[in-house]
Design brief:
Layout lengths: L13 E5 L5 H13 L4 E5 L6 H10 L7 E7 L4 H6 L6 E6 L7 H8 L8 E2 L4 H16 L3 H20 L4
Parallel strand pairs: 1-2, 1-3, 3-4, 4-5
Bound molecules: 5-O-phosphono-beta-D-ribofuranose (RP5).
Catalytic activity: 5-carboxyamino-1-(5-phospho-D-ribosyl)imidazole + H(+) = 5-amino-1-(5-phospho-D-ribosyl)imidazole-4-carboxylate
InterPro entries: PurE_ClassI (IPR033747), PurE_dom (IPR000031), PurE_prokaryotes (IPR024694)
Function: Catalyzes the conversion of N5-carboxyaminoimidazole ribonucleotide (N5-CAIR) to 4-carboxy-5-aminoimidazole ribonucleotide (CAIR).
Length: 169
């Protein structure tokens, strides 16, 4: 389930959107991290091809609803991040979802090759991309949120400690 009950009443600062229910397994990694950091967020299925009107509405109202970043995941002909970015100045972080036919290379190329003037920050294919998009959104929000900045520092330190303390069999 997206978000946590504790955050249910907070206005979402980050939107996680995806082209299909089938993208959730990947995008859930972004949700998990935002939950872990206590960032109020929402998750929605918004398809560029199957629900273009919903996509237009989502992008057009994103800033006035208080969203500070939109994490958009899509696979195959992955037009969602770019078409959302075309209709809002809220930063869009694109996550290429691994497709069955082409292993996500199609998704990656669809998202990364934006024309100059309409940026989408593009992340790695799959889970790593979803996790990093969430961490990037957290990092963006942390410039105006001291508590979040401290939690991000602690997260990095814990990650480094884990590597240092790791032992090979
Ligand atoms: C894209 O098509 C979605 O983002 C998804 O990754 C892909 C396949 O969608 P389904 O056919 O599984 O619904 O729009």
């Amino acid at each position: 389930m997206c978000g946590s009950p504790a955050m249910a009443d907070d206005a979402p600062r980050v939107g996680i959107i995806m082209g299909s229910r089938s993208d959730w397994e990947t995008m859930a990694h972004a949700d998990t991290l935002l939950k872990e950091f206590g960032v109020a967020h929402e998750c929605r299925i918004v398809s560029a091809h199957r629900t273009p009107a919903r996509m237009n509405e989502y992008a057009a109202t994103a800033r006035e609803r208080g969203l500070r970043a939109i994490i958009a995941g899509a696979g195959g002909a992955a037009h969602l991040p770019g078409m959302v970015a075309a209709q809002t100045t809220v930063p869009v972080l694109g996550v290429p979802v691994q497709s069955r036919a082409l292993k996500g290379l199609d998704s990656l190329l669809s998202i990364v090759q934006m024309p100059g003037g309409v940026p989408v920050a593009t992340f790695a294919i799959g889970e790593a991309g979803a996790r990093n998009a969430a961490l990037f959104a957290i990092s963006m929000l942390s410039s105006e949120d001291k508590g979040l900045a401290e939690r991000l520092e602690a997260y990095r330190e814990a990650q480094a400690r884990k590597v240092i303390e790791d032992e090979l069999p």
